[in-house]
Amino acid sequence: MKSRKAMVLALTASMAASLAAGCGSSGGGKSASSASNAASTSGSASGSGKVYYLNFKPEADEYWQELAKEYTDETGVKVTVLTAASGEYESTLKSEMAKSEAPTLFQVNGPVGLASWKDYCYDLSGSDIEGQLTDKAYELKDGDKVAGIAYVTEAYGLITNKALLEKAGYSSDDIKSFDDLKKVAEDITARKSELGFSAFTSAGMDSSSDWRFKTHLANLPIYYEYKADGVDDKDELKGTYLQNYRDIWDLYINNSTTDPSQLSTATGDQAESEFVNQEAVFFQNGTWEYDKVKAIGDDNLDFLPIYFGVDDANEGLCMGTENYWCVNSKASEEDIKATLDFMNWCVTSDKGVEAMTSSDKMGFNIPFKSNPESQNTLFKLANANKGTPVSWNFSTMPSEEWKNTLGQALTVYAADQTDGNWDLVKQAFVDNWKTEKELAASAS
Fold first, then answer.
1. N or C terminus of the chain with fewer C-beta within 10 Å?
2. Are 414 and 420 in contact (CB under 8 A)?
3. CA end-to-end span of the chain
């Protein structure tokens, strides 16, 4: 991961606004809208160019459509927003880029994503939006070229219902390690009928939810292996911390609202509903969920690290980004200019900043100078956490195929928790990492 330490420091310093939309995205379906209604042509962005944004975050679609219309009304520049379905961004991007009217603004998730699209990335060096960044750690570089710019930073961990935890006889202060979390979770499970709730929400492995475990949870064994070896990426993994991965996965699936054998069809919406309806104490998810989970009341929310049993005394929330804006270098000069103007307007104008950061809209924490004080309780809690932030290493995962194979193995293991089935998880994690890294290298 590029400049990991700098990114973590910059994120901790600048974390001030909320996140309504997660890396993985729990929404679904595609929608497209052209914000090309009759409009005033006043404003510096007006001209012959147009903007076509392929949005990664389904849960933010409504607000991007509204913002596109606002921009068109203000400037006369046509802005079209197409939102890819959850888990289908890469395939949608490939399809749309093959068309004569291709996206002028798109997203990659970091170095691995950039490897596939670097020839389509306009150099953002010296652009207005680059000048708005709070730290150059949020640039995605291809050699000396600024190929992408992060537009949102996020945090994830265990969203916690304090009222239910207290009803079970505990507080957040009682959970400072994996062993503490295990003790509390298993006690809640033992008294589930009496208490009327579970420890964890369902660890669904439907495509709307599996990213939480094949990507977000899988980040932790990668993070600790990188940290132990003093590296930011590896062509081969040793799997040093896979037992810790198994331990936390066992804890999730055996102390939740849903039988482990039913996880293959359990969805992200299901887990979200379970938490909001106070059927479970813990919900692994991120700051982007605030707009939904705030229904239980800000005073009832807490945000704990995913204690992993490695460095629990110092572990903090998982913080970072895998959301980088890129401008299509194959677009016309007019469209490139229009797209750059739109991006800058989004992070500098009152309407753009409000739409991107307000807790009742996109709720993003944006790494730009305009980022206001957070209205997101989860982000405030993450910012107040004194632990060492766990950096995001998703962008070094070799491929979607690697994630999918790992997810399938986790699902098989959940239904039948034998050592032999865990060996399938190990193979998917370690052996398939090497295979997919080699394939990626040969394709580049």
1. C
2. no
3. 18
Owner of token pair 């994690």: 429
> Which pairing describes strands 51-55 and 79-83: parallel, antiparallel, or unpaired?
parallel
Q: Tokens at residue 61, please?
A: 């679609």
With contact defined as beta carbons under 8 Å apart, do 411 and 399 qualify? Answer: no
- Note whether 149 and 161 are same-domain residues: no
Residue 387 has pLDDT above 50, yes or no: yes
Which amino acid, one-letter code, is at 23? C
Other C-beta atoms closer than 10 Å to the C-beta of 337 total 18
Domain that holds residue 303: 155-318+387-443
CA-to-CA distance for 8 and 389, rounded, in angstroms? 7
Provide the token pair at 211.
Answer: 């990213």
pLDDT of 144 over the 50 cut: yes
Q: What is the pLDDT of residues 255-277, one digit of tens each?
A: 999 999 999 999 999 999 999 99
H helix intervals, 21-152: 61-75, 89-97, 111-117, 128-132
Phi then psi for 80, rounded to 5 degrees?
A: -110, 135
Q: How many residues does this entry show for the chain?
A: 444
280-286 vs 198-200, strand pairing mode: parallel
For 329-341, what is each residue's pLDDT tens digit?
Answer: 999 999 999 999 9
Domain presence at residue 381: no
